[in-house]
Structures are given as C-alpha cells and as structure tokens.
C-alpha cells in the first residue's frame, strides 16, 4: 500500500518518538533496577557485618540473644538470614533455624577466593563476604527478600509500559494533525498550480511568508510560470506575425498570377510579371530562412557546434557575400589599433550563427543608409574584442528602441523599406547565445551605432 506524504511523515515521526520513549523507559527501568539491587546488597552487607561483629567481638551476646537482636532491629530486612562460618567451614551462627538456601563447601571456597560474592537464589538476594577478626577469616553469608523494592520496581515497569503506549498513541494522533497542518500550504500550492491553464498563465502562486521551503517552491513555480508565459506569448506572437508575413508575399504572387491568366499578354508583359513574382519568391525565401533560423535558436541549441572563429575573416566573408547580392553596398572594415597577435581576433562560436548575426547587422546598416554604406571597426579592450557597426541612415526613435529586438517589429520610419523585422532580433539572440554584449545607439536622421562585445578565446566560457 502506497502512503501519501502526510502518512509517511506521521509514521516516521511516530517511529522516532516511539524509539526515543522506549529507549528512555528501558534506561529508566534498568537504572532503577540497578539502584534497587545495589542499595539492597549494601543493606544486606551492613546487616551481615553488624551481626558478625556482635557475634565475634561482644562476649556478652549469646547466640539466642543475637537471634533476638537480628529479628527485632529497626532496619531488619524481610525474611533475612545471616550465616557465619569459621575457618574450617563449620557453621558458627545462623539467625534462623531453617536454611533458606543450601550453602556448600564450593560456595564457601569461592567466597574465600573472591572475598565478596553476590548472587540470587530464587527471589532471595544473597551476599557472601570475608570478615577478619584476630588474624582469622570468617565467612559471612547473608540473604533477604526485597519484597518492597521489587514491588516498587514492578509498579515502575507497568507505569513505563502504559505511559509509553499512551504516549505513542498520542504521538500518532498529534503527528497526523501536525503533518496535515505542515502540508496544508503545499496542498494549497498544488491546488493553485492545478487551476492554472493556458488561458490564465498570468496567475501566480501565493508565496506565503516567502522564507520557508514551501515558499521557495512557490517562488520557483512562479518563475517557471513567468518563463512559460513569456514562451507562450512569444510563440503566439511568432505564429501570428509569421502567418501575416507569409500571407503577404503569397497573396501578391497569387494575385499577379491570377491577373496574368485573365488574358493573353505580350512577351514583355510576361517578363515583367515573372520578374515581379521572382522578387516576391526571393522575399518569401528570405523570410522563411529567417523564421527557420529564429525557431532553431529558440528551441534546440545542442545541435550547434562551437569552435574557434576569426572575426576579421568572417567580416570579410560577410562583406563579400553582401556585395555579390548588392553591388551598390559600400562596406568599410578597419582596425582601431594594430593587432600583432591574430589569436586576439578569435572567439569561440558557431560559424553559421555568427555569420547570420553579422550579415544581418551590416545589411541593415547598408539598407537604411542613403548611400548604402556602413563602417565596421574592430578593436581590443582587455580580454574582449569590440565590433562597431556605424551607418548614417535614418536612425531609430527612442520610443522604438525598447522594441527593436521583438520579432517582426518594424518602426514607423522604415515601413516603406522592404524587410521583415527579424534581423535585429535574430542577431541579438545569437550574440547573447555566445555570451556577448549587444549595445545600440541611434538618433533619427543621424544614423545608428551598434557595438558588439565578445570575449576572446582565452577567457570565453562557452562550451558545446
């Protein structure tokens, strides 16, 4: 049978408390029994020594008188008997006419050897000892029944047993109540989390006092909900924007083809229409590639391999690729200072992703500049390489700066220029993935300055 957490806590707590109570009870009983035995043997010994002293040292005390004294002393023990043996093991004195137990030569020899012997015969405690008088050794054997001590010990045993049983029962009840109260905040968290669906991801779990473990769990749940809400919002926005962006070129292509098929056209008209359709297809292809790259970065990062990459060489390749497609672009690449060690230009990263990021940034700079020109500058700062991309384009308003990294977002002043609003978002995520820093400064009518800061390979912490 599987137990829930409440039952498990109650059982574990009960076992712990029951173990402590049982050990405590056993300890109390053992110590009480030892004290009773030790104290009773001390009384037996004192009584035996007193009897031996009267017998051997006081001549006026006869055997009969000594028996009377033994039976009537204030500290007389219950059913006690004292035996005194001479050196030849002859019985000199017995406080009773009948023997409570058999004393043989073996026992007397053992007493003479060990000087003091304690043992139990039936319910009688017996002590044998040596009493020396006038250079002679006498064996004194004393026995008695600790009727009252054993009765008290028996009462103590039942008190401890019943007390332990009662305490365990109370512990079970208390532990169930305590476990229920202790887990009540947990149950509340479970109920709150269970009530959260896709329609209310903005709901948060009550964190209680914000300090204990359950509060920390609630805080962790809230952080997870924030990530889920952000991811869901991004996904919903991505799907909505992607479908809208894909619909535009597809609609344009469909409309052009339908209009073309409505009547016979001249060769020049067909060429003109096909050229327009080709532009729309290229635009659609560019959008699809951007969407695929953005989706891949947001989902599976384990497929990307990170190796040493030369930033300057990558920039020259980006420049060459852009000029093949846009011969009117002017890209000026320079170094702020002379760099002798080429390893200072190396970073650990993914070649494909870094080329996408740099190509998008340089392409944006050229696209939005009136002269289609951009300046790219490389510099070293401590253990980092700085890549500065400056254009003299239309710039970005301050009110738009906080949204330029949102996918598909395009500022009002660039709506007339063909684009999809994916470049900056994609580049910023790629640089962040490489543990770099992305900083942008812009002023409308004066241009934009983008600075990338990446650690060189000696201090880069990125791993596959």
Describe this structure in words.
The protein has 464 residues and is an alpha+beta fold. It folds into three domains: 5-152, PAS domain (Beta-Lactamase), CATH 3.30.450.20; 213-296, Orthogonal Bundle (Helix Hairpins); 300-455, 2-Layer Sandwich (Heat Shock Protein 90). Helix content is 54%, strand content 19%. It has helices spanning 5-57, 63-72, 105-114, 147-194, 213-261, 267-299, 311-325, 351-367, 398-401, 423-433; strands spanning 81-85, 91-94, 116-121, 124-133, 136-144, 307-310, 330-335, 346-349, 369-381, 384-393, 437-443, 447-455. The strands form three sheets. A five-stranded antiparallel beta sheet has the order 2-1-5-4-3, with helices on both faces. Strand 11 and strand 12 (447-455) form a beta hairpin. Helix 7 (311-325) crosses helix 8 and helix 8 (351-367) runs antiparallel to helix 10 (423-433). Residues 459-464 have low confidence and may be disordered.
What secondary-structure arrangement, pairings included, does this model have?
Layout: H1 5-57, H2 63-72, E1 81-85, E2 91-94, H3 105-114, E3 116-121, E4 124-133, E5 136-144, H4 147-194, H5 213-261, H6 267-299, E6 307-310, H7 311-325, E7 330-335, E8 346-349, H8 351-367, E9 369-381, E10 384-393, H9 398-401, H10 423-433, E11 437-443, E12 447-455
Parallel strand pairs: 7-9
Antiparallel strand pairs: 1-2, 1-5, 3-4, 4-5, 6-8, 9-10, 10-12, 11-12
């Amino acid at each position: 049978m599987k137990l829930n957490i409440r039952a498990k806590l109650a059982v574990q707590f009960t076992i712990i408390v029951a173990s402590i109570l049982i050990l405590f009870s056993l300890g109390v009983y053992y110590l009480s029994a030892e004290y009773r035995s030790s104290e009773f043997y001390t009384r037996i010994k004192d009584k035996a020594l007193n009897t031996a002293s009267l017998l051997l040292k006081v001549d006026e005390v006869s055997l009969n008188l000594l028996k009377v004294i033994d039976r009537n002393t204030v500290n007389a023990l219950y059913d006690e008997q004292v035996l005194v043996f001479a050196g030849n093991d002859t019985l000199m004195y017995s406080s009773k006419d009948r023997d409570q137990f058999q004393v043989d030569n073996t026992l007397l020899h053992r007493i003479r050897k060990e000087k003091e012997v304690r043992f139990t015969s039936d319910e009688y405690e017996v002590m044998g000892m040596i009493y020396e008088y006038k250079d002679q050794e006498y064996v004194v054997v004393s026995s008695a029944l600790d009727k009252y001590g054993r009765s008290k010990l028996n009462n103590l045993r039942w008190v401890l047993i019943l007390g332990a049983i009662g305490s365990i029962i109370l512990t079970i009840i208390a532990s169930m109540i305590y476990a229920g109260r202790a887990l009540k905040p947990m149950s509340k968290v479970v109920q709150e989390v269970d009530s959260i669906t896709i329609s209310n991801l903005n709901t948060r779990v009550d964190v209680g006092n914000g300090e204990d473990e359950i509060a920390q769990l609630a805080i962790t749940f809230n952080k997870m909900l924030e990530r889920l809400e952000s991811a869901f919002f991004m996904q919903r926005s991505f799907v909505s924007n992607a479908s809208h962006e894909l619909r535009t070129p597809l609609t344009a292509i469909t409309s052009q083809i339908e209009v073309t098929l409505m009547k016979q056209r001249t060769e020049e008209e067909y060429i003109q229409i096909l050229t327009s359709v080709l532009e729309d297809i290229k635009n659609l292809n560019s959008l699809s590639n951007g969407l695929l790259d953005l989706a891949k970065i947001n989902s599976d990062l384990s497929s990307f391999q990170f190796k040493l990459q030369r930033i300057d060489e990558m920039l020259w390749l980006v420049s060459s690729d852009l000029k093949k497609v846009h011969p009117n672009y002017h890209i000026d690449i320079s170094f702020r200072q002379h760099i002798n060690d080429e390893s200072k230009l190396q970073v650990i990263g993914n070649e494909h992703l870094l080329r996408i990021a740099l190509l998008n940034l340089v392409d944006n700079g050229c696209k939005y500049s009136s002269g289609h020109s951009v300046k790219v500058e490389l510099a070293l700062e401590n253990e980092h390489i700085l890549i500065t991309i400056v254009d003299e384009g239309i710039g970005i308003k301050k009110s738009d700066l906080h949204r330029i990294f949102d996918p598909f977002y395009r500022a009002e002043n660039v709506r007339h220029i063909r684009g999809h609003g994916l470049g900056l978002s994609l580049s910023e995520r790629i640089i962040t993935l490489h543990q770099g820093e992305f900083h942008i400064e812009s002023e409308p009518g004066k241009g934009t300055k983008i600075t990338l800061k990446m650690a060189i390979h000696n201090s880069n912490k990125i791993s596959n």
